[in-house]
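Input record (Table S2, row 202):
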Amino acid sequence: MNIDDEFDIIITKYSLAKDLVENKLKIMMNDFVNKHNYNPIEHFKSRIKSKESIINKLNNKKLDITVDNIVNNVKDIVGIRLVCSFLTDIYDIVSLISNISQFNIIERKDYITNPKESGYTSYHLIISVPINYKGQKEFVNVEIQIRTVAQDFWASLNHKIQYKYEENIPNDIKEEMYEYSLIINQLDKKMVNLNKVVNGGK
Ligand code: 0O2
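Output record (0O2 complex):
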């Protein structure tokens, strides 16, 4: 089988995983809203990584373009981003996701407690979920990124900057973005406190 056909199969399998995870998350959120009368998720987005981006990622990691390398080294072929209002929502959502029986947590990265050098903050989970492809059960990885609206705002501009300058982001822009990430973190913490005051300490 040539690599284009292999890619088509990979995309089909990961699309099944994306549908499954989206459905489970919707059910999870409906249950939460029914119970607490509050929806911590402002919005959510899903995407399947393009073939070009998958190839770029393997090239950056100096790996050959093979099915094994794709499956073992590109953990975010399916990416789901959950954006919420408050820092505290992030940890509630992580805990809810961790309790979904079909989701097997493979990796947790708390870039809120340990921000990346760029200033990037977000909580990442890599989960493995079962899919049924042509009558066979298989497990597929999905990346879930959970972040606040403010963190998402920062990440979105940072993504544009990375795209424009690639590896050569000018130092003054890097420093400015880092400074803004600190401001955003302070703001997020203040918003949690103010929300507690407004809601009588809850
Ligand atoms: P895209 O376009 O969002 O898909 P990996 O790079 O995934 O092989 P690593 O280092 O373990 O391995 O991944 P990491 O850093 O935990 O997560 C990678 C993803 O996090 C990125 O995916 C981005 O979505 C996001 N991310 C990480 N660092 C930054 C950052 O400094 N700025 C922004 N805006 N996003 C970041 P991709 O595939 O790089 O990009």
